[in-house]
């Protein structure tokens, strides 16, 4: 996933909106970790 691809904008929007909607800080951390794994793992597909 490259930063200039439209799929990145969708990915970023979803990650940001879900992170913003979560009120529990522990859940926010886990969500960001899951987003990070997905982002870095996307290169292998």
What does this structure look like?
The protein has 45 residues and is mostly helical. It has one domain. 73% of the residues lie in helices and 0% in strands. The chain is built from two helices and no strands. The chain has helices at 6-21, 25-41. α1 (6-21) runs antiparallel to α2 (25-41). The chain is flat and about 30 Å long. 0% of the residues are buried.
Find the structural class using helix and strand composition.
Answer: mainly alpha
Strand count, sense and barrel status of the largest sheet are: none
List how many beta strands DSSP finds.
0
Number of helix segments? Answer: 2
Q: How many angstroms does the end-to-end distance come to?
A: 10 Å
Order of helices and strands: HH
Return the average pLDDT rounded to an integer.
92
Q: Give start-end ranges of low-pLDDT stretches.
A: none
Strand % is under 5%
- Cα-atom radius of gyration: 11 Å
What is the 3D form? Answer: flat
Count of distinct structural domains: 1
The helix fraction, in percent, is over 70%
Q: Which labels suit this protein?
A:
single chain; 45 residues; mainly alpha; 2 helices
Give a topology summary:
Layout lengths: L5 H16 L3 H17 L4
Helix pairs in contact: 1-2
